[in-house]
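We modelled the chain as a single entity of 267 amino acids. Its sequence is:
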Amino acid sequence: MNKLLVIGAGYLGEEILRQFKAAGWQATGVSLSGGENLIACDVSDSESVAALPDADAVIHCAASGRGGEDAYRNVYLKGCENLVRRFPQAKIAFTSSSSVYAQHNGETVNEESETIPDRETGRLLLAAENIVLDAGGVVARLAGIYGPNRSVLLSKFKNDEAVIEEDGRRFINQIHRDDAASALLHLFNLTKFPAGEIFNICDSESLTQLEVYQGLAKIFSKPLPPSGPRDLNRKRGWTHKQVSNAKLKATGWQPKYPSFLDAVETL
């Protein structure tokens, strides 16, 4: 039985653990504070990581705790450095972010597209990616995660806090939590592990902000939100692009929820 360590047993990590266990893996969660059935480990501390048990596979999906540059440097950059050093023979995956694509003209981006993030946090993610890729690992660039009891767009809409930025043309790129976990399971179960590869993990259909709110208005029989200026203070910056998952789908994976609106009634 393959042994997996999931670094970061939060919203996504819990679902990764569930799906891998259901598929027959011996999967163990790791978190900063530990807890029931979890191993305590500070991934930024080399001695703490060195004490982790041996594993055949490792998935780094720990969150930055809404922190800034220092948190990104510790959790992602130092974390990846420590993990590849501790597990030189293991299959490693790092869940990065599609925010590394800073395009803003509505273009479609794939794994070969230019990555010049306009924020230091994005540059730190790219540096962490390179550490994992150089070690023969896989990088999964996740779009914004939504799922059961978690959707910023849906919450803002239902609480009358949503605003359509300008004409609502900005594309929203998202991925359902369960689909993100199934994508990672799929990559690890491939006959040949795609070492050194990058994959975008996102819904199959990029919706504009206006299309999202039009869909929600129809589902909940509510009026459209008011229009307003761009939110230039978004943590991941203001971008306008369509993230393609064609490379991942070419390996045989398909999302259960092709678009956000397909999943709304299950949230």
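As a brief sanity check on the tokenised model: The chain has one domain: 3-266. The first strand starts at residue 3 and ends at 7.
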